[in-house]
Write a structure and sequence with these properties.
Elements: H1 3-19, H2 24-64
Helix pairs in contact: 1-2
Length: 67
């Protein structure tokens, strides 16, 4: 799943949990699913942050060289 898909899924889970229509077992499962999706999303953000850092450093090296 993409980051955007994860956000949509988390929003869906939240709506279901807030509806008050889930059983305790369903709430626990939804919470577990949300935790897994959140962890995956966090890892995606960290990976993206790393890529941005590398690219930024490469750009800085290029701009430091005289033309």
């Amino acid at each position: 799943m993409t980051f955007e898909e994860n956000v949509k899924k988390l929003e869906e889970i939240l709506k279901q949990m807030e509806s008050g229509k889930l059983t305790l077992e369903e709430m626990n499962k939804s919470f577990e699913d949300a935790c897994k999706i959140s962890k995956e999303s966090y890892e995606m953000l960290q990976k993206s942050k790393g890529k941005i850092t590398v690219l930024t450093k490469e750009i800085e090296k290029l701009t430091e060289k005289p033309l």
